[in-house]
Amino acid sequence: MAQSCTKHENHACVVCHVGPRSVWHDLDETASALLAGGRRRREYGSGEVVFVQGEQNDGVHCVSGGTVGIRRLDDNGNSVLLELAYPGDTIGYRSFLTGSEHKTSAEALGPSVVCHIDRAAITALLAGNPALGLRFLKRSIGELEHAHDMMFRQATLSNRHKLVHLLLVLVQRHGRRHSNGSQSIDLPVSRRDLASMVGTRHETISRIIGRLETDGVAHFSGRQVTIPSVEALAGEIDRLISA
Amino acid sequence: MAQSCTKHENHACVVCHVGPRSVWHDLDETASALLAGGRRRREYGSGEVVFVQGEQNDGVHCVSGGTVGIRRLDDNGNSVLLELAYPGDTIGYRSFLTGSEHKTSAEALGPSVVCHIDRAAITALLAGNPALGLRFLKRSIGELEHAHDMMFRQATLSNRHKLVHLLLVLVQRHGRRHSNGSQSIDLPVSRRDLASMVGTRHETISRIIGRLETDGVAHFSGRQVTIPSVEALAGEIDRLISA
DNA sequence: CGCCAGGTTGATTTCGCTCAAGCAATGTGG
DNA sequence: CCACATTGCTTGAGCGAAATCAACCTGGCG
Predict the structure, then answer these.
(1) Set of chain B residues whose Cβ sits within 8 Å of the Cβ of A145
(2) What secondary structure letter does DSSP report for A2?
(3) How far is the CA of A86 from the C1' of D26 (A)?
(4) Which residues in A lie closer than 8 A to residue B143 (C-beta atoms)?
(5) How many beta-carbon pairs below 8 A join chains A and B?
(6) What is the mean pLDDT of residues B41-47?
(7) What is the pLDDT at residue B243?
(8) Side-chain half-sphere exposure of B185, counting CA atoms within 13 A
């Protein structure tokens, strides 16, 4: 579990520097100084927007606490939550590196802390640290693998299986283990967003949730989900793979 | 349109060096020599595999002629065609850079020419040319944007609209303009693969094709597609966006 | 208190999946 | 050259799933 830095408000954000997920860890002194100078920390309330699709890029952001949703919109009001970013993740780096406007929006899905690193600082950092570019490359490749997995699932799994898979992913990051072996999640997203992630309508998500309830594999109450046996839930998908 | 290098069989592959799509263009002399030494050209017949999912990576490949399909498989025999690679595209670089086994398979979708660049050569090239890493980064980012677009469409468009969109993409690269304004495509893929790209079953693709025929917006005959008016076809999707 | 956003539920229709049959093109071995 | 299998595609019937449209509920919140 990555550490939030809400306890270090007065200090430099540790997560962005040393978090193993972060591209910024393990920089030399001059680079660290450069980073410290160009970074500005800010707290976001639930629903607050970090950057907006279409807006011109003005540097990158690094999540240091909370959860940030990356969303794509179209002119018809359709909204798809493409991915979730957690402490240590750098976001908005794609439009920075390609010098284009933001292709997605980012918003805090709960109280969050996000640092902004300005254009000049990163440009200087990249010029002085070739390794930094490679780390961005690895991160980008990781996201690409993730997207390919997603595309594959979208094409092969049923809606129910896709929702189950999503729950299994969320439980890893947001799950609280209970004494009796069950786990609970505080969903960071609305039903509509769940629906967009599964690729269906929110009414359908409601109904699938109903079926999961009657099957006893998950219990939903608002954004609270309790899963009696994560193994049983995972079995729904593994069965497909091993069958 | 990118040039195939089938006419330069005895020479070094030009596309890989100077193609604007290629990450290898515009290298200095020593780098070019390094590249020339580590590269081996090979022709592939239709259906021949370039590399196989699960196999250990042994360098990268650069498409220099034809079309190569990037495919993901699972244990149940499900197959999804994730993307198409064209002359100038470098493939298999992700597993190379992350030092892992191939996460996808690549196969020639028609007579193709693909160069292989061995491990040692790229490692040396990357070490000596920081710019090369950045080019891989940009390419990776481009693929990621593409994957996000795909995810968005999968979640918002109907199967018919997804197929129409796919046809519009294919016509750009494979289309032959006819004198009366219509365009023809030689589809590089089977109906099953079309289905996997749209995220549905091949029977459904057959039926959608039937409807496109009766609506007169496209005519299918085997892998030959004729589109009387690409604009009319594009209108099916634009209507959604502007509506 | 009324309003509103988010969520659930219901009724209806459309759509897509499954299973199954049929068909054309291709290849193969006798 | 033919019988035969194979592969890729199409078509049909039946059924289950999901989209749509609509009503309604619930918990904030001005």
Answers:
(1) 94, 103
(2) P
(3) 32
(4) 144
(5) 114
(6) 93
(7) 44
(8) 22
Q: CB-based contact (8 Å) between B235 and chain A?
A: no
Chain A nearest-CA residue for B83: A148
Query: Stated in angstroms, how far is B129 CA from C18 C1'?
Result: 55
All residues of chain A having their beta carbon less than 8 Å from the beta carbon of residue B75 are 241-242
Alpha-helix residue ranges (DSSP H) falling in chain B: 14-18, 29-38, 93-98, 119-128, 130-156, 159-174, 191-198, 202-214, 230-242
What three-state secondary structure class fits B198? helix
Put simply, the answer to whether B138 touches A240 (Cβ < 8 Å) is no
Write out pLDDT tens, residues A5-20.
Answer: 444 444 556 667 667 7
CA B18/CA B87 separation, integer angstroms: 11
Tens-digit pLDDT profile for residues A198-243: 999 999 999 999 999 999 999 999 999 999 999 999 998 876 665 4
Catalogue all structural domains in chain B, each as residue range(s) with its CATH number: 3-134 (2.60.120.10), 156-242 (1.10.10.10)
User: What is the model's pLDDT at position B2?
Assistant: 45
Q: Are B186 and B223 in contact (CB under 8 A)?
A: yes
Higher pLDDT, B34 or A71: A71
Mean pLDDT over residues B112-125, rounded?
93
Tell me if A101 sits within 8 A of A55, measured CB to CB.
Answer: yes
Check CB contact under 8 Å for A80 and B143.
no
What's the rounded Cα separation, in Å, for the pair B238 and A80?
19
* Cα A101 from Cα A96, distance rounded (Å): 8
* Identity of the residue numbered A237: I
Tens digit of each residue's pLDDT (9 = 90 or more) over B59-106: 999 999 999 999 999 988 899 999 999 999 999 999 999 999 999 999
pLDDT digits (tens, 9 = 90+) for A105-140: 999 999 999 999 999 999 999 988 888 999 999 999
Q: Do B80 and A242 touch (CB under 8 A)?
A: no
Q: Does B73 touch chain A (CB under 8 A)?
A: no
